[in-house]
Specification:
The protein is of the alpha/beta class and 172 residues long. The chain has one domain (4-171). 38% of the residues lie in helices and 15% in strands. The protein contains 6 helices and 5 strands; from the N terminus they run H-E-H-E-H-E-H-E-H-E-H. It has helices spanning 4-12, 29-35, 46-61, 88-94, 125-133, 155-171; strands spanning 16-20, 39-41, 66-68, 101-107, 138-144. The strands form 2 sheets. The protein has a 3-stranded parallel beta sheet with strand order 2-1-3, with helices on one face. Helix 3 (46-61) packs across helix 4. It is globular and about 45 Å long.
């Protein structure tokens, strides 16, 4: 949903993130997320995506915890977007489990979605940061599912199952 996702997720459970390459150049935030060991992915470059899958598999085999946002872009948080399954190939190759995680930003008193941190469409990064810093009653809700292995599923089937799991966690 937002630039805030990485900060909240890292506070809840430290890990290395896989993020779009332009996030590295975000003012102030780029330095923070780079310092956290973020791996940057060049979108639209198949060769770079394959290198990233191999690099992720190596990191997983070394015991790193990686966080991936499978929607591949930001949304308004009201519904999950389709998942991109490509990066799950790293977990399959490394025989690593995946932990489904649901993240929502809500109004503290009602539990309804809070619009402040949303970073989509014409919203600028500075505008989103400003709206978030000025928001009243903003609460981040992080819910964890059960770790799961691919169990012979290909990455697309596994991505669909993970999406359903995360959607269920979001509804709790």
């Amino acid at each position: 949903m937002s630039w805030l996702d990485i900060l909240v997720m890292n506070a809840a459970r430290p890990s290395r993130f896989v993020s779009k390459a332009d996030a590295e150049h975000w003012p102030l935030l780029g330095s923070l997320i780079t310092g956290a060991g973020t791996l940057y992915l060049e979108r639209g470059n198949r060769r770079a995506a394959m290198r990233m899958v191999h690099h992720m598999a190596e990191r997983l085999e070394l015991g790193d915890i990686l966080t991936v946002f499978p929607e591949g872009t930001t949304g308004d948080g009201r519904a999950l977007l389709p998942f991109h399954a490509n990066l799950l190939q790293a977990a399959i190759a490394a025989r690593a489990p995946v932990l489904p995680i649901a993240l929502r930003f809500v109004q503290r008193d009602t539990g309804e979605p809070h619009p402040a941190p949303v970073f989509v469409g014409d919203t600028t990064l500075i505008g989103s940061i400003w709206a978030t810093l000025n928001a009243d009653g903003l609460r981040a809700v992080v819910r964890y599912g059960e770790p799961q292995h691919d169990q012979g599923r290909d990455r697309r089937a596994w991505a669909n199952d993970l999406r359903a799991d995360i959607d269920r966690l979001r509804a709790l």
